[in-house]
Amino acid sequence: MIQRRHLMAASTLAALPLGAFAQSDYPNKPIKIIVAFPPGGTSDVMGRMVAEPLAKVLGQPVVVENVGGAGGVIGTERGVKAPADGYTIIQTGVGQNAVAHGLDPNLKYDSVKDFIHLSHVHSGPNVLVVNANQPYKTLAELVKAAKASPGKLDYGYTHAASGHMAMELFKQTAGIFMTGIPYRGGGPMMTALLGNEIPMMFINQDVALPHVKAGKLRPLAVSSLQRNSLYPDVPTVAESGYPGFEALSWSGMSVARGTPAPIVAKLEAAFKEVMTSPAIRQKLESNGFVVPAQGSKPYTDFVASELQRWTKVIKTAGIKPQ
């Protein structure tokens, strides 16, 4: 009888697909997070911020691989084409998973259909700042000047970045026309603004803060629905006369569609544990970011809504890929 039971158990194990064993002991080797931008920027900081605590939760090393190029498209495409086994996590974000679809209708991945979105990691506003020598003290004053002299007011932007999108949405919402001056990066653009070569721009709130504190830049409005903790006295665009206005910088973590459900569930739970930890909350909030709602469903819904939002703005503005 004992021998028969052993034979039955052996036959049952043999009947199980090999993938079942791999899923049950996941993870059993290092995990990679693909960050689709070069080291040093906000995306890279966010990827590395979660890598270490995620490794502790999962019990395996988590390494960050930077694959920059094409506004995040190259790295994202590589990540979604990797084996759907849970060992390649893709950092998703506003540029590569929302704006990119509006710029290129023939993108080689679909940010709704080709991904399983696991966790929203960060969300933060842009802030509309002017050089301190400019006369504008409020958003209303700036809009009044823009309407009085269409096209004569300039602003700086880097192509398809969240600040660029925020400005395009604001121009459409306020019904104004201003002239955009393109820059190849945030560094040169900030230098131009500080030198009063351009009067204004939308930029990430954490980047602007040192110059605001130094009195070199004046913040007029933030682009989140709620006021930002770093700028408690600065109104939102929404409360300045444009209800519902929102333009955020954001990122999250996703895997390729086809990743087995048990692995997805384990990763989702692990990210929820990481993102709700006091240490992560403190890091984010001290830099003016917020901890978004956690879980696969809210992040999936958010990505879809952002894709629709920015595709519409880009089409209306007639923005083309570079």
Describe the structure.
The chain is an alpha/beta fold and 322 residues long. It folds into two domains: 31-123 and 249-317, D-Maltodextrin-Binding Protein, domain 2, CATH 3.40.190.150; 125-240, Periplasmic binding protein-like II (D-Maltodextrin-Binding Protein, domain 2), CATH 3.40.190.10. Helix content is 44%, strand content 20%. The chain is built from twelve helices and nine strands. It has helices at 2-15, 18-24, 42-58, 73-81, 94-103, 139-148, 162-174, 186-194, 205-213, 261-275, 278-285, 296-317; strands at 31-35, 62-66, 88-93, 115-131, 154-158, 179-183, 200-204, 217-222, 248-256. The strands form two sheets. Strands 1, 2, 3, 4, 7, 8 and 9 form a seven-stranded mixed sheet that branches. Helix 3 (42-58) links the parallel strand 1 and strand 2 (62-66). Helix 3 packs across helix 10. Mean pLDDT is 93; it is low at 1-10 and 12-16.
CATH homologous superfamily designation of the largest domain:
Bordetella uptake gene, domain 1
Question: Helicity range of the residues?
Answer: 40-55%
Question: Which class of secondary structure composition applies to the elements?
Answer: alpha/beta
**Beta-strand content:** 15-25%
Number of helices: 12
